[in-house]
Amino acid sequence: SSISAHRGPLFHMLADPAEVGEEASYQYWEDGLLVVADGKIIAAGAYSDLLSTLPDGAVIENHPDSLIVPGFIDTHIHYPQTEMIGAFGKQLLEWLNTYTFPTERDFQDPQHARRVARVFLDELLKNGTTTALVFGTVHPESVDMFFEEALERNLRMICGKVMMDRNAPDYLCDTAESSYQDSKALLEKWHGKGRLLYAVTPRFAPTSTPEQLAAAGRLRQEHPDAYMHTHLSENLAECAWVKELFPQCANYLDVYDHYGLLGKRAVLAHGIHLCEDEWKRLHSSDSALAFCPTSNLFLGSGLFALEEAERHKVKVGLGTDVGGGTSFSLLQTLNEAYKVMQLRGQALTPFKSFYLATLGGARALELDHCLGGFTAGKEADFVVLDKRATPLLQLRMENCRSLAEQLFAFSILGDDRAIRATYAAGRCVHKK
Ligand code: GUN
Ligand code: FE
């Protein structure tokens, strides 16, 4: 086995600062060393402590003027919407009909799907995102193309075929039975292949019949180690529509609960308009939310209540939600998350921000045993942030008096230019 090592300022999160306090929540070595073998972390610590543990001839890569952090984790994104990012002027339901559905139609063509998947994965890596929970389209081929490209790059990625059998154009609809069969076949083909994992993916309650949600629940019961990925309570018109479509359910979350779709590895995007019962049920069912601030602002959906998630101990990851979201960068997503919290009269601290982008995302995906930090044995997915990315960032960094201020500056000023290099399973997959 070949050992490689990376020297530079090294930082990772150990826990949620809201739970254990800031001091106990992270580790930082100003002159650190990250030791990697066979795609896994062997050790992380001070250079002076670890140098003597390296075998003779081990290659050390130096990363001056940087900050080495765990790879970012995007817990909600749509790869087929790459080409319609930032489409003008509509809120959710009109935006879906005007821009999203026509764009997703093209993914019936596998060659188109592969081409977009390549651009999408390049964009993720360029932005330091090494793991994402990804929507495909209704077409099974869209998922095959995505997974083929992700497998080739040896990335830890989660994806699923959209299930939708009503309230959408005919050309994008499957049926309860075909969606079950197609999802099952994809799950059995891809879940656990390389680092890939499958998500059962009903689009959202309004585009599935009760029969389809029941079929999704059956599949989830048959494969409890797979994911469930959907949308929840994003927009007020959507919430009113769900109430009309499922009058027998107590609230929006209860629709998914009724069909057995909640639990560990269930990730629901948004959750903007939730009642107390829904917060309690998210906690008791051990489900997770994806906080998607750029999307929630762009589509005018509302302001996510991160402090409620903390109060109810609900797991939260960060999502870009491209193409409703406006950036692939989780740094830019943190920038908007900070402003959302400011509008709610709350402060999102720099450590909480980096927790959400790394270990918090890993926990939301139940992957913190292998992702989200530099503990020995975890997978070696990491990012080299560049303190000299631009003259402005360099100047701002020189003015910072603490690690917290540096982290904050990265989250406010940083974007893809701040990512000097990205490593997946120990291998460099992007270099500026
Ligand atoms: N709700 C249902 N489908 C979608 C989608 O594609 N994007 C977003 N943001 N919300 C949705
Ligand atoms: Fe979405």
UniProtKB/TrEMBL annotation:
Residues 68-428 form the Amidohydrolase-related domain. Its EC number is 3.5.4.3. GO terms for molecular function: guanine deaminase activity; zinc ion binding. Keywords: Hydrolase, Metal-binding, Zinc. It comes from the Bacteria. Coiled coil: none annotated. Binds 1 zinc ion per subunit. InterPro entries: Amidohydro-rel, Guanine_deaminase, Metal-dep_hydrolase_composite, Metal_Hydrolase, Metallo-dep_hydrolases. It catalyses: guanine + H2O + H(+) = xanthine + NH4(+). It holds the Pfam family Amidohydro_1. One of its GO terms (biological process) is guanine catabolic process. Its cofactor is Zn(2+). The keyword Hydrolase applies. Pathway: Purine metabolism; guanine degradation; xanthine from guanine: step 1/1. Gene3D superfamilies: Metal-dependent hydrolases, Urease, subunit C, domain 1. It is an enzyme of class 3 (hydrolase). GO terms for cellular component: cytosol. Belongs to the metallo-dependent hydrolases superfamily. ATZ/TRZ family. Catalyzes the hydrolytic deamination of guanine, producing xanthine and ammonia. This is Guanine deaminase.
